[in-house]
Write a sequence for this structure.
C-alpha cells in the first residue's frame, strides 16, 4: 500500500510510494479526497517528526529517520522487534516503512507533549504547574518503563538518551519513554559518535566521556539527572547562576550532608505534610548519579526504592571528579541539539 495514499505524506521531501507496515489493526486504506495538512511538529537527534491523522481519526507521530545506515532487511528485523515491545510506560510503535535510503517509523501520538514542557515551561505555563503527586507519578512510570527495557525484554535495550524530551505524557499524565531501541539501528561506532554529538549536556553518564564500557547503568545515571530536575523544577546546569547552585548535583549532595534536602525542592510548589517521599526520591536520584557505575542501582531496584518496598540508605558523597569533568564539559561545549519529539511542538 502506498504510504502517500495511506498517510498523505506528500509533505515529507523525498518520499514517494513507500510501503507502510502496521503493527496490530491496519487503518483503512481507502483514499480520501480531502486530507488534513501534514504538520511538522519537531526535529531532533534522529530526524524530523510529523503529525498525521489517519482516516479512522487516529493520530500518529511519523518520524523520518536520519543517520540510520542499516540495510532494509536488517532495519525490518530490528524495528519488528521494537514493535513487539509493549508496556504501559513505553510509547507504542504503530508501524514502519522503507524504500532505498528512506526510513520512517510511526508512533502513537502523545497529547500532553514532553516532560520538558511541564518542568521547564514559561511563566505562562505556571497555571499548569505539575503538583508533587503528579510528578511522582511520572517519576515512577518512567522508572518502570526503563526497568522493562533493561530486564524484561527478550533482548536488553539500552536507551542511551534519557532526558525530559524523551519522556512523553498522555492525557492522564502517564509517563511513556520514547525513542527506545532506535540506537540499535546504528553500529556501535555510530551509536557512540551519535550520543557524543547529539546527547544532551547534563544527562550523559561519565562512561560516555571517559570511553569506559557503556551499559544500562548509563540510563540509570541519566534517569537520576532527570529525577533531580523533576524534584527541583530547574536544570542541572544553569550558566546564568553565579552561586554554588550553578552546577546543581554537587549542591544537592552538599544539602544532603547538611540534612537540608527541603531547600532543593521546587520553590514554586506548596509542600504540605510529610517530606519523606520527596526526601526518599532525592536520595534515589543521588544513588543513580554515582560516578562509579557499580554503585548505581538497577532500574528495578529504583522502582522498589521509590515505592517504599525497600529502604533507601544514605548515598555516598559524590566525588569531585564528576563535578570537575562536567563543569569542564559545560564550559567548553555549546548547547547540543535536543532529541526528536513525538508530541506536539513546544
Amino acid at each position: 500500500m502506498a504510504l502517500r495514499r495511506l498517510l498523505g505524506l506528500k509533505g515529507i521531501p523525498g518520499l514517494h510510494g513507500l510501503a507502510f507496515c502496521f503493527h496490530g489493526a491496519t487503518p483503512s486504506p481507502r483514499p480520501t479526497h480531502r486530507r488534513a495538512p501534514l504538520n511538522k511538529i519537531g526535529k531532533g537527534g534522529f530526524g524530523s517528526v510529523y503529525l498525521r491523522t489517519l482516516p479512522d481519526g487516529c493520530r500518529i507521530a511519523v518520524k523520518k529517520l536520519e543517520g540510520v545506515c542499516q540495510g532494509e532487511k536488517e532495519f525490518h528485523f530490528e524495528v519488528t522487534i521494537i514493535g513487539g515491545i509493549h508496556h504501559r510506560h513505553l510509547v507504542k510503535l504503530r508501524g514502519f516503512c522503507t524504500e532505498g535510503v528512506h526510513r520512517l517509523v510511526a508512533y502513537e501520538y502523545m497529547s500532553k507533549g514532553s516532560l520538558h514542557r511541564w518542568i521547564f515551561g514559561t511563566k505562562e505555563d505556571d497555571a499548569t504547574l505539575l503538583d508533587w503527586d503528579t510528578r511522582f507519578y511520572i517519576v515512577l512510570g518512567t522508572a518502570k518503563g526503563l526497568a522493562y527495557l533493561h530486564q524484561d525484554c527478550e533482548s536488553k535495550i539500552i536507551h542511551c538518551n534519557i532526558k525530559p524530551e524523551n519522556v512523553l505524557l498522555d492525557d492522564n499524565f502517564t509517563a511513556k519513554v520514547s525513542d527506545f531501541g532506535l540506537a540499535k539501528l546504528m553500529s556501535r561506532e555510530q551509536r557512540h559518535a551519535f550520543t557524543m554529538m547529539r546527547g544532551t549536556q547534563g544527562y550523559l553518564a561519565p562512561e560516555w566521556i571517559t570511553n569506559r564500557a557503556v551499559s544500562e547503568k548509563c540510563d540509570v545515571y541519566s534517569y537520576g539527572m532527570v529525577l533531580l530536575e523533576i524534584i527541583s523544577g530547574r536544570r542541572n546546569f544553569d550558566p546564568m547562576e553565579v552561586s554554588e547552585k550553578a552546577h546543581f548535583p554537587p549542591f544537592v549532595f552538599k544539602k544532603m550532608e547538611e540534612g537540608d534536602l527541603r531547600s532543593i525542592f521546587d520553590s514554586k510548589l506548596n509542600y504540605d505534610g510529610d517530606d519523606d517521599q520527596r526526601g526518599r526520591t532525592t536520595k534515589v536520584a543521588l544513588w543513580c548519579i554515582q560516578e562509579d557505575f557499580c554503585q548505581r542501582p538497577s532500574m528495578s531496584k529504583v522502582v522498589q526504592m521509590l515505592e517504599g518496598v525497600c529502604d533507601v540508605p544514605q548515598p555516598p558523597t559524590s566525588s569531585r571528579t564528576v563535578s570537575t569533568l562536567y563543569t569542564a564539559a559545560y564550559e567548553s561545549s555549546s548547547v547540543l541539539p535536543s532529541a526528536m519529539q513525538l508530541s506536539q511542538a513546544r
About this structure: The beta strands are 19-22, 39-44, 47-53, 59-65, 93-99, 102-108, 167-169, 175-177.
